[in-house]
Amino acid sequence: MPDKPPEKQAAASPRRRGVKAMPPDLGPRTRAEQLAAVIDARIRDGEFRPGESIGTLESLRAETKFAYSTVSEAVRLLRDRGIIEIRPGRGGGLFVADAGPVVRMRRTLLRVSDHPETVADAVELRDHLEILIATSAARHRTTRDVADLRALLVAMEQADTWEDFVRENWVLHERIAQICPNEMARAVYVGTLGHLRSTSSSSLDDHTSDKYRQQRVHVHRELVDAIESGDENAVRDVVTRHNAAV
Questions:
Q1: What fold does the segment set 112-244 form as a domain?
Q2: 195 DSSP 8-state letter
Q3: 215 forms bridges with which residues in the sheet?
Q4: By the 8 A CB rule, do 19 and 59 touch?
Q5: Are 20 and 13 in contact (CB under 8 A)?
Q6: What is the enclosing helix (H) or strand (E) of 52?
Q7: I want to staple 129 with a disulfide (CB 3.0 to 4.6 A). Which of 13, 27, 189, 194 is the partner?
């Protein structure tokens, strides 16, 4: 079922106590990011405790009236940030993750303001971590990892809109980060991506040309090729060019 127009749609709290409206001014974020922000806020406010169930994909979809793809994306964002965990099988579903130091670090990064200086700080931090994350991915990638990265490249290349293109770009980088076994580095890196992701949609309008998109797809394809080859020197070279072009 397609999403309703934003002005007619309310994001429900997944809480069984009832549905609450989405805050009115959430900027350029996607519906999935808005829903993830609502759930995260309620967890941080103590409405959900560590280990407590917040429902299932189906129950969230039914309560929020969002499309299944939107709810799935919101859950993926929360899972990748260490805020919730997915438990399979009977009695499974979506549960609040233990708020250990790594999770608290992610939440701190995602709550920083979107002033130009803090965006610049996030970019600088991400750029320093990019080589660590990507070279680690080159050392630890599996056949499944590479297949996932290539599928995400296709999605990035075939994106219909600039917003979709940017979203697929972030998803690709988050998937690369998942390969890195260094949990601390991964947490900080994904946290910077989350911050930049929520502030980038309106700040990159000057780069929406087909030529620029093709250049970005090309450098990301080179990055995936280097990760697949395991050539760390090639990874460093591509990352340097990737970051210099942003």
A1: Four Helix Bundle (Hemerythrin (Met), subunit A) (1.20.120)
A2: H
A3: none
A4: no
A5: yes
A6: none
A7: 189
